[in-house]
């Protein structure tokens, strides 16, 4: 049940990124988004609060292949399917939970001005 | 028999002896430390600090003089059998699915071996387009040896000649094999022959011909080529395990490597046992900052082109007894994407980020990084020319692109960005020098003053500032003006573990480590200069293919 709800949230987020092209920088941190979706710390920090969250935890709820399809027509590039990692880029490279997310692609690719939720 | 001889009595080449004496290994430090302690004891009481500093030798690597603790190379933590989720047994286990690992796996499988490839990343990863070998049947032996001599000279005579000869005499076969098999996987790869090898002109009076494989046109690269080759390997029975970074090598009591422990991205550990051998083709360490700062401090301020190259393979082989080449590893920095590759070595006026002329522009692009090592420069420079470039530079080395053709490389021009990387093109055109300066990120005043000074020198016909030959002095006078803004970023590091001519890792005694082989950019001995040479275009990939192809076959037949 939780899985389906979250999945829809991701799709709608991805869709809004695609359509508006940019999300204002004042959008909330993902920790708040996850909290709003009913998650608690232990859902991600499963064994120990100090453990870094593995990508396998993310993909328990987020389907990478579906996500890649959702952003397939992105006007700049499809961040979820690329020449470096296929559809399996480590989510944590771009999407930060407790700080602002980053434009990981933009550090090398000129004009890849992506806004990461 | 020779196995029991000490390195001092063994007949050994200069290169290998030097790496054994000056490289980084567990034993070299321990034995030198022992000697040091002895000397201190003899000298008296001042040695207490030296003794006190003997920290955790068992778990941290040390520099070759024992002075520095290499805490970026910690000993892998022991994994208990109870932590192992699965164990599978193969003949050959390849660590790393790239331009050397994939050919190694397929050639081993074609020789009848049961093969596993364990790969850290989610897909096969490789870069570049060109991989070269010698069409040996159409070469004079004197020509081949002249080329080997030139490559040694390019590497400041610090390479292992035996490894260069191995490439020279086997690469044609290996590269042709890669072309054939990659095509069978549906890959876009062709043999361009000797045509693209501009760099060998005048190198020898004897016959020299090449097999020059080309994966392309862009955005298709060797990465795609190796992914297509991996399809053929899978059909041949090779099993690929992605998202499975190798963590450590498994050794029997004699030290022979008999398998690999890898960790899935869920954190679980898995054993991959190898009856015949483990081939480590895990690439370089450009993304391991501490390791780069130690081995090549020059790289500090350059951007990295690759990701996840953290030197895991180095760590594994070191802790299994391997020896790392001493400080002073070979680096590779280019930019073939900002503007036409064939114009990269053309000696147009070059300015740095401030807009200052900084070099005699006949310096090859592959060496330009040496003038741009500071935080301010960070590898960026621009080639500047005016509307007369098609006539001014018509006899210069390389191939010119016309004003119409070069539009592909201009982000501001609507021309379709076909055959190039749209996010890496970086060529600009402007009607005034000030406007061009702004587009190239230079200070307009400095830029203009430097162009004017350069034009003065051109008029004089004598480059009093940098000594460039008069026939390379093309002034920048007629609008529109052009600038190719090149970014020297790190493509690869090409030095590493000491190996013999079979790519078998050697231990600190100079003896082969049973079951352990290293190929591709992770292997040492093939280069040795400050920079990767561009005498043979595609030498790097050609070397990776060749070492992979030969080693796969060799290990399968053990």
Q: Can you walk through the features of this model?
A:
- The complex is a heterodimer of chains A (117) and B (558).
- The model of chain A is unreliable at 1-9 and 14-25 (pLDDT under 50).
- Chain A has helices at residues 2-20, 30-36, 41-44, 55-58, 64-70.
- Chain A is globular.
- Chain A is built from 5 helices and no strands.
- The two termini of chain A are 24 Å apart.
- With 117 residues, chain A is mostly helical.
- In chain B, strands 3, 4, 8, 9, 10, 11, 18 and 19 form an 8-stranded mixed sheet that branches. A 4-stranded antiparallel sheet of chain B has the order 13-14-16-15. Chain B has a 3-stranded antiparallel sheet with strand order 5-7-6.
- Chain B has 2 domains: 81-332 and 492-556, FAD/NAD(P)-binding domain (3-Layer(bba) Sandwich), CATH 3.50.50; 336-487, Alpha-Beta Complex (Flavocytochrome C3, Chain A, domain 1).
- At the A-B interface, loops of A face loops of B.
Structure described in brief:
The complex is a heterodimer of chains A (117) and B (558). Chain A has 117 residues and is mostly helical. Chain A is 35% helix and 0% strand.
CATH architecture of the largest domain in chain B: 3-Layer(bba) Sandwich
Number of DSSP helices of chain A? 5
Helical amount of chain B: 25-40%
How much helix, percentage-wise, in residues of chain A?
25-40%
Terminal CA distance of chain A: 24 Å
- How much strand of chain B? 15-25%
Largest beta sheet of chain A, briefly? Answer: none
Rough shape of chain A? globular
Reported by name, the CATH topology of the largest domain in chain B is FAD/NAD(P)-binding domain
Sum up the overall morphology of chain B in one term.
Answer: globular
| Mean pLDDT reading of chain A | 82
């Amino acid at each position: 049940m939780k899985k389906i709800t979250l999945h829809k949230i991701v799709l709608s987020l991805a869709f809004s990124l695609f359509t508006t092209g940019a999300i204002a920088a004042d959008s909330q941190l993902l920790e708040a988004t996850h909290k709003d979706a009913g998650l608690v710390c232990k859902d991600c920090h499963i064994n120990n609060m100090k453990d870094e969250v593995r990508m396998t935890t993310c993909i328990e709820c987020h389907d990478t292949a579906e996500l890649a399809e959702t952003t397939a027509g992105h006007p700049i590039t499809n961040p979820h399917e690329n020449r470096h990692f296929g559809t399996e880029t480590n989510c944590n490279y771009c999407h930060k939970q407790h700080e602002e997310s980053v434009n990981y692609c933009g550090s090398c690719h000129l004009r890849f001005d992506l806004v990461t939720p | 028999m020779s196995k029991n001889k000490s390195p001092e009595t063994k007949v050994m080449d200069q290169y290998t002896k030097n790496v054994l004496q000056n490289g980084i290994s567990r034993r070299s430090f321990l034995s030198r430390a022992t000697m040091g302690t002895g000397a201190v004891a003899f000298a008296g009481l001042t040695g207490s600090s030296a003794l006190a500093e003997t920290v955790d030798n068992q778990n941290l690597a040390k520099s070759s003089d024992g002075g520095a603790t290499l805490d970026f190379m910690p000993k892998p933590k022991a994994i208990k059998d109870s932590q192992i989720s699965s164990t599978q047994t193969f003949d050959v286990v390849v660590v790393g699915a790239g331009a050397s690992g994939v050919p190694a796996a397929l050639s081993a499988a074609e020789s009848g071996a049961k093969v596993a490839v364990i790969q850290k990343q989610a897909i096969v990863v490789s870069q570049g387009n060109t991989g070269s070998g010698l069409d040996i049947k159409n070469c004079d032996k004197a020509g081949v040896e002249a080329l080997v001599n030139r490559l040694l000279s390019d590497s400041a005579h610090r390479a292992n000649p035996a490894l260069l000869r191995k490439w020279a005499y086997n690469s044609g076969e290996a590269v042709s094999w890669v072309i054939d098999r990659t095509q069978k996987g549906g890959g876009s790869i062709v043999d361009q022959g000797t045509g693209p090898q501009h760099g060998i002109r005048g190198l020898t009076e004897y016959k020299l011909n090449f097999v020059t494989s080309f994966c392309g046109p862009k955005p298709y690269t060797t990465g795609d080529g190796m992914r297509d080759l991996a399809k053929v390997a899978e059909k041949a029975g090779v099993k690929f395990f992605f998202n499975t970074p190798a963590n450590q090598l498994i050794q029997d009591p004699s030290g022979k490597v008999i398998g690999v422990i890898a960790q899935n991205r869920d954190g679980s550990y898995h054993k991959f046992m190898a009856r015949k051998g483990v081939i480590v083709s895990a690439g370089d360490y450009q993304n391991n900052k501490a390791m780069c700062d130690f081995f090549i401090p020059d790289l500090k301020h350059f951007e990295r082109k690759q990701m996840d190259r953290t030197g895991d393979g180095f760590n594994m082989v070191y802790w299994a007894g391997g020896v790392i080449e001493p400080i002073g590893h070979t680096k590779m920095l280019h930019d073939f994407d900002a503007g036409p590759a064939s114009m990269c070595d053309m000696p147009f006026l070059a300015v740095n980020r401030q807009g200052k002329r900084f070099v005699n522009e006949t310096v090859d692009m592959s060496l330009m990084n040496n003038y741009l090592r500071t935080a301010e420069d960070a590898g960026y420079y621009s080639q500047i020319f005016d509307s007369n470039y098609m006539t001014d530079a018509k006899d210069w080395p390389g191939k010119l692109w016309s004003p119409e053709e070069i539009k592909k490389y201009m982000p501001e021009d609507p021309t379709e960005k076909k055959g190039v990387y749209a996010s890496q093109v970086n060529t600009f055109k402007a009607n005034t020098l000030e406007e061009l300066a702004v587009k190239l990120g230079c200070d307009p005043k400095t830029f203009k003053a430097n162009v004017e000074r350069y034009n003065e020198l051109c008029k004089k016909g004598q480059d009093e500032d940098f000594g460039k030959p008069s026939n390379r002095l093309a002034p920048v006078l007629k609008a529109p003006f052009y600038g190719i803004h090149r970014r020297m970023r790190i493509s690869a590091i090409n030095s590493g573990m000491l190996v013999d001519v079979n790519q078998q890792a050697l231990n600190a005694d100079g003896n082969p480590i049973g079951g352990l082989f290293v190929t591709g950019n992770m292997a040492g001995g093939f280069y040795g200069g400050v920079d990767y040479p561009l005498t043979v275009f595609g030498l790097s990939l050609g070397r990776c293919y060749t070492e992979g192809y030969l080693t796969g076959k060799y290990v399968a037949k053990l």
